[in-house]
Specification:
This protein has one domain (about 5-160). Helices cover about 70% and strands about 0% of the residues. It contains seven helices and no strands. It has helices at about 5-30, 35-45, 50, 55-75, 80-90, 100-120, 145-160. Helix 4 (about 55-75) runs antiparallel to helix 5 (about 80-90). The protein is globular and about 50 Å long.
Length: about 160
């Protein structure tokens, strides 16, 4: 794996609160604020250089551009929202090239777990805890920021639980 413990210790403290904010915001309002996306990009821009070194840090910016291009296409096809595309692109530089397959599998698991958890909570008494969440009443739409943020956070935590 490409993510090291040193990189986690530098990047997780900023990505964790931003990721939690994105998940909460998307669940409650079905929106991922641009300020959260900008904060994630700026955080990587400032902090990523220290644990990665200049060459790796510079190459990671290509991840943002590639994921943004894919996200714009998926948004144009109606497969996901613009905020989801922007957040995925902002998170992409945090991922090492060697870990892309791992992150895709992790995202698949987070997406499935997030969807099931959201639908079960929506259909249960848990919904009464936050009755004003827009994600409860949007029909088939799903707050993708929830599993996207979970993927980023769990990925950054992976050096801590990897053997």
């Amino acid at each position: 794996m490409g993510m090291t413990l040193t990189q986690t210790l530098w990047l997780l403290p900023v990505a964790l609160p931003i990721g939690l904010y994105v998940a909460w915001s998307d669940l409650s309002s079905m929106k991922i604020p641009n300020k959260a996306v900008a904060a994630l990009v700026i955080s990587f821009g400032i902090l990523g250089l220290f644990p990665l070194g200049a060459e790796e840090w510079a190459w990671r910016w290509s991840h943002l551009l590639i994921v943004l291009a894919i996200g714009i296409l998926m948004n144009a096809l109606g497969l996901l929202g613009a905020g989801d595309a922007k957040f995925a692109a902002a998170a992409a530089p945090f991922v090492a090239r060697d870990d892309i397959a791992f992150v895709l599998y992790l995202f698949a698991g987070c997406l499935l777990a997030g969807f099931v958890t959201h639908r079960l909570a929506r259909a249960s008494a848990l919904r009464r805890l936050v009755p004003d969440w827009q994600s409860w009443t949007t029909g088939n739409r799903f707050p993708m920021g929830f599993p996207l943020a979970a993927t980023l956070i769990l990925y950054l935590l992976s050096p801590l639980y990897r053997g």
